[in-house]
Amino acid sequence: MKSSNTKSFYSDFLPAFASGAVASAIAKTAIAPLDRTKINFQVSRSQKYSFTAALKFAKKTYRESGFFSLWRGNSAQIVRVVPSGAIQFAAHEQYVELFQVDKNGVSTPFRRFAAGSCATTTAGIITYPLDTARAQLAVSSKDEYKNLTSVFVQNYRNHGLSSFYRGLIPSLMGAMIYGGVGWFINDSLKKMYKERTGLKVTLVTSFVFGASAGLIGQVCSYPLDIVRRRTQTRRIPPGQTTAQSLMLIWRTKGVRDGLYKGFSINMIEGPLSSGIWFATSTLLLRMWKEGHNK
């Protein structure tokens, strides 16, 4: 007879893990060209961002390196987001149970926020080196790094293991805010929808809720994402704190061209990616549970 822990693993953790993994691969591949364009402007000290400039960058990349160059770094992104999304979705299910979120008819908004924040932070800590390598690959040419493996090999030889954890603090701070706000908005909207309509959340509705969560989460955490990307790609000097980096960017570049540089792309990319991820992962998990219970 299987133990209760084994049953819980196969009935709860594994389906959530797989659902989050598949949804992450689909979502990030869909927005990869936008993501590469955004990172290029986030880390640049000289290029002033505008939507027109972003389109010119995409056209130039296409003309010089071909259509699939717009997805450069996506293999590294997939390697990162698949385990990250899988861990986050599965961890969230566990934190919801651990914190007893909205149990027994009692609304617990803070616990809802905490479960999302902890889930995103957990995934961020485990997969961070892959995120660093993905950022460096996205802003480099083939002459610098041929592939994801060369990023790891060259950086380890030249800078040591610690180089893969550059920007970890702003990343975790951003993850706590983005994950907490995102999951809180998504779960709160789903809860309100079910209470007012008595209906199941559809795929389209789930996408809208997820997109809304992604947009609001990005607004709250975007400046920390700027610091994270610049630190990962060595645009920020070693030893400079997150607070110092934020102040320096604000003083020298301001809000629009500094702390929120490239955000107009994110207003498309963030909600689209988040909507696809929340909708797909939720649908896959529901399908598995309904099939399992038949």
UniProtKB/TrEMBL annotation:
One of its GO terms (biological process) is transmembrane transport. GO terms for cellular component: membrane. The chain crosses the membrane at residues 164-185, 197-217. It is found in: Membrane. Keywords: Membrane, Repeat, Transmembrane, Transmembrane helix, Transport. Gene3D superfamilies: Mitochondrial carrier domain. Solcar repeats lie at residues 11-98, 107-192, 201-287. InterPro entries: MCP (IPR002067), MCP_dom_sf (IPR023395), MCP_transmembrane (IPR018108). It comes from the Eukaryota. This is Mitochondrial carrier protein.
